[in-house]
Design a protein that fits this description.
Length: 68
């Protein structure tokens, strides 16, 4: 079986939330991605990260992808 070369976390957030809540959500996503990478045996500092944002009416879809 081939080894994975990427991991992805997606969250939907309300556009009208205060910036503190949005920042907290981003930090949580970074933390969980790091934990996910450690779980699969990848050093989080060696991965390359990419954020993508999709707008949907009054919500945003945030996706954090890590490549190694």
């Amino acid at each position: 079986m081939a080894k994975h070369t990427q991991a992805q976390i997606t969250r939907t957030v309300d556009k009208n939330q205060p910036s503190e809540v949005l920042e907290k959500t981003q930090n949580q996503m970074k933390y969980y991605m790091g934990a996910k990478l450690v779980e699969v045996g990848v050093d989080p500092k060696s991965a390359i990260y990419r954020w993508s944002v999709s707008n949907q009416d009054d919500k945003k879809l945030w996706t954090l992808t890590a490549y190694w």
